Amino acid sequence: MSRIPRERTNPAGKRPGKIGRPGKDAPAVEPLNIVHGALPSREVILRFIADHPQKASKRELAKAFGLKGDSRVELKHMLQELEQEGMLQKSRKSLIRPGALPPVTVLDITTRDKDGDLIGRPAEWPEDQGVAPAVAIRQQSPAGRQGKGKAPVAGLGDRILAKIFPAVDRGGPAYTARIIKVIDRRRGASMGVFRAAPGGAGRLLPIERRGEEMVIDPEFTGGAVDGDLVEVEIARLGRFGLQRAKVLSVVGSVGSEKAISMIAIHAHGIPHVFPPAVIAEAEEAKPATMSHREDWRDVPLITIDPADAKDHDDAVYAELDPSPDNPGGVIVTVAIADVSWYVRPNSPLDREALKRGNSVYFPDRVVPMLPERISNDLCSLKEGVGRPALAVRMSFSGEGRKIGHTFHRIMMKSAAKLSYQQAQAAIDGNPDDKTGPMLEPILKPLWHAYEVMKRGRDRRQPLELDMPERKILLKPDGTVDRVFVPPRLDAHKLIEEMMIQANVCAAETLEKKRQSLIYRIHDGPTLAKQEILREFLATLGISLAKGGNMRANSFNGILAKAEGTAHQTMVNEMVLRSQSQAIYSPENIGHFGLNLMKYAHFTSPIRRYADLIVHRALVGSLGFGEGGITTDEEAALDDIAAEISTFERRAMAAERETIDRLIAHHLSTRIGEEFAGRVSGVTKSGLFIALPDYGADGFVPISTLGTDYFIYDEAHQALSGEKTGLGYRLGDSVTVKLAEAIPLAGALRFEMLSEGREMPTAVRSFHKAGRRDRGQVRKKPGTRPPRGRR
Q: Mean pLDDT over all residues of the chain?
């Protein structure tokens, strides 16, 4: 990675800039009125953070203003107040202005300005913050930059990792950016369904909810026929009429099996075809040797996975601790496939795995991070076959406290491959021919160990949300058969808790060895989100204590109060919305949801690149032989963490959109039918309605709710009529009619059949206070959002 010139703040109040001659990386700003060693004003703090996003941590701020002792404490209190007022928010370990971009951001290059310079926008941007800010891309290497090789060069449609700086020219984009790395090329292509038109021409019907129809001239059809799913690029722009497009590739018939998941794969730019060099390396791989390995092939480790799992990357075993110093204690062993032996740093396999970041799971297919020769064969812990693994032996006291652990590089042989249902049935008294002989020696000790570990989990009190996960079962032709909620078994919980503790051990060991790694971090809810949740809960008579030191068990208390009430689902959803998103980072802030201070993903290296990095770090720091982490990797951990966090969000979005499209296809023949639903979201534009029986949701535009003026109340999560006082709140049970289904966009539009209910006194008081002029929006009949908007 190239080195970025350091910046300094001149205590005399002169214009801050980088040492030496300023370049484009450090735009000039107006001078700040700074007195070195004195606590600056709130306005100066906010201005400094806006102009120096890369120096916006509490530590850097204290250093920049020369604060010590009591002044540092006062600074901390000031920053907490600014957070509580919504003037600042946390981004990883730094502070940013709300709506501002963090110092390192993933951008999609979307267009050019009038001078031909590239303009990008953040790849991830919350819809409730409006239009994503524009960023001017600096292509050339900045003056005085030190580093090896040429600066990365990007083009339209590319996705890049970039260093962000506030812009000098206030008349243009708010930010400038220097390219750190090009992540994906040519993301500007669009996808849609080709419809033949007279004269050999065609039309492109968009698959995106906000997509636009395009015209395809006869010479640009690329051999597509009616009903083909095609990828296109804009051929030319006109001042009037529809855009012209050119077919780049024909994906296949939109009516074919697996076409729905292919839409998401192409729309999100998910790599799904392994290059020849990657396949060749995988095919040429040989089974691992015993070098630097302990022989554990006699240890009866078993795998417990979904019944349809094709790869098995974790195995478990438990026994009573024979040590007299640990009465009632247990020893739990978790063995994880040794992917680091086969996927070496900077090899074709490694570069492709990083490009993908993780495996992506659709109802009809899996897009794996690694080729099948690696994931389903050499690294899969198959029953009765010798396989290399990294294992951790963990000792727990009778109270469930972890009192020690050791890591080992081993050769193992799985004693059995079981499904969750199969293992649970045996414990519940219904063993089969396979599980019967292993019930006493293997399964019962595992369940006993889980009961011991559960005591520690109950004491730790991680966040316990009750959000059932729905699964889609497909027919042989790829269409939806049924949607169901699979039961949550103790077998699931057992494996989950053992994997969590193995991940904790990995982080603890690497920290003790002072080895760089990638943590799985989860920040606590921002003060602004806490306040929204607090106001909402107050309408239900549930209190949430104020303060910035919230813990997971604080939310568990709220969930317990709502359990068994009509508000249970609604409260669970609001608590979930108040939480931050978990990401990967080389800087540790702990995991709020799990209530753990040290946590790193270690247990799924077949399907997550973060786990592969942790494996390499363990191999290298513990002297386990070949396949350890390299110095180049250690230097790039910031970039790697940012990339794989982005790829994880990409996978989640693709999986969710595929389910939406499948359900929309499933319901497209039932226009006009009535459905029982629940208000799952309230916005200024209307209501989101979830159909619990289908795992889908759709939209009711506010313009179709009636003739009253409806006012959006964020605190109460309600839309209520100004005149009648009737309205709808989050969690309300309603009846809706399906008015429109757009299968390719995955969009459903409903008409509300249920009458609004009388709003609580607090909501009516909200109207009388006239607060709609301070952010609450009134929608008049006839103002309608784009069709299918979610």
A: 83
Output the CA torsion 650→651→654→659 (10° steps).
-150
pTM (predicted TM-score):
0.75
Task: Name the residue with higher pLDDT: 341 or 725.
Answer: 341
Query: Is the pLDDT score of 485 beyond 70?
Result: yes
Collapse the DSSP code of 185 into the 3-class scheme (helix H, G, I; strand E, B; otherwise coil) and give the result: coil
Residue 221, amino acid: T
Report the 3 state secondary structure along 82-128.
Answer: HHHCCCCEEECCEEECCCCCCCEEEEEEEEECCCCCEEEEECCCCHH
CATH superfamily of 669-758: Nucleic acid-binding proteins (2.40.50.140)
Distance CA 313, CA 582 (A): 23
Q: Which residues contact 683 (CB under 8 A, 6 or more apart)?
A: 128, 712
| Nearest-angstrom CA–CA distance, 745 and 191 | 11
SS3 740: strand
Condensed to tens digits (0 to 9), the pLDDT of residues 79-120 reads 777 766 556 656 555 555 555 677 778 888 876 666 667 888
Please list the residue range(s) of the chain that carry CATH number 1.10.10: 42-96
Distances in Å between the Cα of 720 and the Cα atoms of 571, 716, 771 are 20, 10, 13
Q: Outline where DSSP puts E strands in 228-329.
A: 228-236, 243-253, 294-295, 302-305, 314-320
**Residue pair 490/424 in contact by the 8 Å Cβ criterion:** yes
pLDDT above 50 for 21? no
Residue that is written with structure tokens 């005399």 in the block: 12
pLDDT of residue 11: 34
**Which tops the pLDDT comparison, 55 or 353?**
353
What angle (nearest 5°) sits at the alpha carbon of residue 88, between those of residues 87 and 92? 165
What is the Cα–Cα distance from 388 to 624, expressed in whole angstroms?
Answer: 12
Contact between 568 and 465 under an 8 Å Cβ cutoff? The reply is: no
Tokens of 497: 């808790």
Taking each helix axis from N to C terminus, what angle separates 348-356 and 609-621, rounded to the nearest 10 degrees?
Answer: 130
Average pLDDT over residues 764-777: 47
Q: Which helix (H) or strand (E) holds 272?
A: none
Task: Give the pLDDT confidence score for residue 779 in this predicted structure.
Answer: 43
Q: What is the CA radius of gyration of the chain?
A: 28
Q: Higher-confidence residue: 134 or 146?
A: 134
Check residue 466 and give its pLDDT: 83
Residue 635 burial class via C-beta count within 10 angstroms: exposed 0-12, middle 13-18, buried 19 and up: exposed
pLDDT exceeds 60 at position 387: yes
Q: How many CB atoms lie within 10 A of CB 498?
A: 25
pLDDT at residue number 238? 54
353 close to 370: Cβ distance less than 8 angstroms: yes
Name which CATH class applies to 42-96. mainly alpha
Decide which of 3.30.420.10, 2.60.40.10, 2.40.50.700, 2.70.50.60 is the CATH code for 189-254.
Answer: 2.40.50.700
Give residue 688's pLDDT: 93
Cα separation, 670 vs 101, whole angstroms: 44
Dist. CA 233–CA 249, nearest whole Å? 10
CA–centroid distance for 341 within its chain? 28
Give the number of residues written for the chain. 790
Of 24-38, 55-69, 307-321, which gets the smallest average pLDDT?
24-38
Q: How far apart are CA 334 and CA 317, in angstroms?
A: 7
Q: Which of 653, 725, 690, 701 is nearest to 269 (CA)?
A: 653
Write the pLDDT tens digit of every residue in 411-458. 999 999 999 999 999 999 999 999 999 999 999 999 999 999 999 999
Fold of 104-141+149-183: OB fold (Dihydrolipoamide Acetyltransferase, E2P) (2.40.50)
